[in-house]
Amino acid sequence: MSGPDPADPVLRGFSRSLPMALLQAREAVMNRFRPLLREAGVTEQQWRVLRALDGGGPLDAGEVARRCCLLTPSLTRIVKTLAAGGLVARRQDPGDLRRLVLDITPAGRALIARVAPLSEARYAEITALFGAANLDDLHAKLAALVAALDETAD
Amino acid sequence: MSGPDPADPVLRGFSRSLPMALLQAREAVMNRFRPLLREAGVTEQQWRVLRALDGGGPLDAGEVARRCCLLTPSLTRIVKTLAAGGLVARRQDPGDLRRLVLDITPAGRALIARVAPLSEARYAEITALFGAANLDDLHAKLAALVAALDETAD
DNA sequence: TGTTAATATTTAACATGTTATATTTATCGT
DNA sequence: ACGATAAATATAACATGTTAAATATTAACA
């Protein structure tokens, strides 16, 4: 007739929460990269948009949002800032006037080229600390997790 | 004498970026939990604070921020909201008046108890889709990554 | 003891996250 | 062609993320 024991948690420990584990891991990694972006004068999100467009060619706003894990209201403002800085260009899609086509400018590519060697150096640092095999396996597991969850998204 | 070939990326592919992989994985996972929190009327961050205090006992604001991956200016506002809703209690630390001690209230615990079974059900769903062994291994790898990076944080 | 440096939290300002809604343009069925 | 529905983006409002600076308290030390 007794209720749940207060010392008996109804929920898994905070540290065993997968969202927390992923968040903490991302924070640990980003702590290594943030100084570079700060030095380059771009935010994390602005950097993601530039990276998606660089090599990804011109893309619809919606596609950029999907690839960058951004919601479209955020993207609207981020692109406004990037366009004001001359790092990204906007134009209407002639075939569908609803769509906004985004592309990186030469100035945007130059910024990426400036940051790239520093970024790769940090990546090499992380690889050395964590191990190349561990890193590959982690990438594979993360991709598998996303595939498993997204395929069955209601 | 030629510069870098534009088709030859100076940076690893966007999809091979560890920060992006961690972000996408977290999004895929959170998509399963967000409806529950929304239904319970709390944000992700408010939920993290409640979870940290539940079972973690009373904690300094700074310690809560560390455990929840929140910056202290964010925590100030989040706790203000939680306190206004009666889910968290604030008091000064008598031994160090600079410190703010936070604790969860009975109402806060009741909210967690209400959400817990739904949350665990989602977790079971994820475990079934991804595999218990994969999940354990992923947790271990994430913890190892954090340990490797945090130990050597400049 | 009194002055300075360090620590914990808060405030302020601006960028982004998040939800709801509005606006514009396409598509579909008739 | 017309009207209803759907789709893509933008706007609005509030919560949070992020940096810098302010405030209050404590610790360190000459």
Task: Describe what you observe in this structure.
The structure is a homodimer. Chain A is mainly α and about 150 residues long. Chain A has one domain (about 40-150): Arc Repressor Mutant, subunit A, CATH 1.10.10. Chain A has six helices and three strands, in the order H-H-E-H-H-E-E-H-H. In chain A, strands 1-3-2 form a three-stranded antiparallel beta sheet. The longest helix of chain A has 25 residues, at about 105-130. The model of chain A is unreliable at about 1-5 (pLDDT under 50). Chains A and B meet through helix 1, helix 2, helix 5 and helix 6 of A and helix 1, helix 2, helix 5 and helix 6 of B. Chain A binds a DNA duplex (30 and 30 nucleotides) through helix 2, helix 4 and strand 3.
Secondary-structure map:
The structure is a homodimer of 154-residue chains.
Chain A (H helix, E strand, L loop, with lengths): L17 H23 L3 H10 L5 E2 H8 L3 H13 L3 E6 L2 E9 L1 H25 L1 H20 L3
The structure holds a DNA duplex (30 and 30 nucleotides).
How much strand of chain A? Answer: 5-15%
| Largest binding interface between chains | A-B, 60 and 60 residues
Top CATH class of chain A: Mainly Alpha
Shape of chain A: globular
Give the CATH H-level superfamily of chain A.
Answer: Winged helix-like DNA-binding domain superfamily/Winged helix DNA-binding domain
Series of secondary-structure elements of chain A, N-terminal to C-terminal: HHEHHEEHH
Question: Major β-sheet of chain A, in short?
Answer: 3 strands, antiparallel
Helical region count of chain A? 6
- Per CATH, which architecture of chain A? Orthogonal Bundle
Oligomeric form: homodimer
Rounded to an integer, what's the Rg of chain A over CA atoms?
Answer: 20 Å
Helix percentage of chain A? 55-70%
Can you tell me the residue ranges of chain A where pLDDT is under 50 for at least 5 consecutive residues? 1-6
Structural class of chain A comes to mainly alpha
